[in-house]
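Whether sequence alone determines local backbone shape is best considered at the level of individual chains. In the encoding step, the backbone of a single protein was reduced to a row of integers, each denoting a local shape. For completeness, the protein is quoted in full, as a sequence line and a line of structure tokens.
***
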Amino acid sequence: MSPTPLGRPVSPGAPRPHLVFTDPAGRRRTTPARFGRASRRDPALPQQIRNGLLDDQGQQCVQVFLSAADAAHPAARALLDTEAGTALHLGRTLENTPYAPLFPTVIGYELDTTEPFLLYAAPRGTAAGRTHVMSASDQRVFARDLTLALCLLDARGLVPRGISPATVLWDGTSVQLWGLEGVARAGRLRTPWGRAPFASPEQRRGEGLVDSRDAVWSAAQVLYQLVTGHPGPADRAPADLDRHRVLAGTLPRAFAPAAAGRPTPGSLLELLAPEEARRLRSAAPGDGTRPHQEAFARALEAKRRAPAPAEDTAGGASDGRAPGEVLCPYCLEGIQFDPGKLYVTDDQMLYRSLDLSRVGNPVRRDDIMRGAVQQCTADPDFPEHHIPVPYLTHGRPLTVAMIGQSSTGKSHLLTQMIAEITDGGLERYGVGWQSVNPEQHSRFVREQVQPLRSGKVLDHTSGLGRDGFARFVESLLLTDARGRVRPVAFFDLGGEDLVRTDGALRFLLGIDALVFVVDPALALPLPQLDEVRERWGTEVDRDGDAAFGTVLDRLPRTGPYLETPAAMVLGKSDLLRFQPPVDRWLGEEPPAAVGPDQFLEESGDVYALLRQHAGAAWLRPFDAFRRCTLHIASATGGRESQGRYPAGTGPRRVLEPLVSLLAMHGIIEAPGSAASFGVRREAQ
């Protein structure tokens, strides 16, 4: 096998280990494989590259991979993920079009492993930096094809930051663009990337927002070097453009020092090849989601027309209880703080009575009370239960329940959600936190947060105790931007308990917010999830999550919709991180502030994905609740292997569902009213 331009040749006598990977259609493939020696594709990047031969089909390939040492760094894995996601997206959307050859062809990938890799078909052509002679007519074709590649990426909101003479290949008739690890989404914050002169000045400095015109600068620099034989200036237009006919009429503005002064990829293609530009516009395919997006818009409009409750009810203010009285989250009776019914736990975790009459120091008294609990005796027939004192002394509590079958990832999601809060994730919205009970919080961190963050898979949620009632697993005091404090308690029951029809679920009648967690392996019959289903011994369930149905049937309804704020989360979204729209939303950074229409676009995308592939049964929570936002999240960032996550856990967008619920309750302030958050669109 002859060497490709990006790697070293394969030795005929090389060993033939079996390689297991997923092909672009989501099918698993196992084949004997031989590989040549590895080399660095770019000395500044961690990925290595080597030629290979897949012996089951005699298929030449190039493997881009990370060593185990490099793969231990999340930033290195993120680069390989970006490259794989971009290449797969382009392959899927450009398949069977004349534009597919402009980009490398993916054969397969295996990314959630100790040494992750990506397999490409052998590159087509030679790096432009090795091309010494090119005719004027070939230069025009080269410029057209490279600009066409930029336009195709721009149409998908992607900007290639890695364009250089080493990543643009030429085979004598057309271009193939590599360097996809440097692709970024337009509109996101720039980070320093690339080298002079091929990276634009603002891209090298990491200033402002990613712009498609960053790539126009890079393409112009590559073409300039190809025509002249030497690189151009790093921060301005070359002085000799007029001497070169191919460059003079089209590229002067492409070298503007700021993106705003450069043409867009589409404008540049209009100059270089107007007929190709028209053909490209007419060939833009639909993605099949339009009918489902329209259905979402209709459902949302019906919710807007439904009468909203009074603002004080939606915001969580008075609900008819006496001053100082709160709802016990267990027996659902009213309870007030009573210093005569306080207890603390001893070294054996047994309750002993607390007498504060001899504690005169107010500072010490308050500190003792933070760790104390009060026995609730409001319902003498209910099993013995205790409530943390701060839960009773800081206004009306807010209770949140996680809903979903076992193995949906509820506990992992909740654990990472709370970890993000304690890391200050709500501070951007003016919300601070403190534990309700320091001992309980310390135990939660020790038993849940720390093991998960270190890469351990958490055990399944334990069932109800012998007394048969649900207890919250963690509680926090949240202080909003106005200084108002509210306790927030989180319930996380096992899936087997959430399908019970006895009194165990009575606590749901007092719940203030619900998070419905969708397991993609159960909901979505996509082929890339087949191997996961086989591994877990599960099947697609077209009837929806049984826990969803039980909970929804248990909640009382007085109008067309349930008024309890709710959120739906497509959990374990790392399993679909290369599937639109998951690929877009997983990389979105949290907003600096919450707007009136926050999460509506994401909700529409998730709704369309579920409606198109899973069916109406999985959307029952959205249909049932007037205010229900839909989210994409991953608690771990990757798949587990033998009880651990090989690269640790990297949570993505785990806090957004809670942010939405807090906005619906008025704890996070958003323009408009809490009662309309998640339903209204800002007036145009």
About this structure: Residues 1-5, 312-318 have pLDDT under 50 and may be disordered.
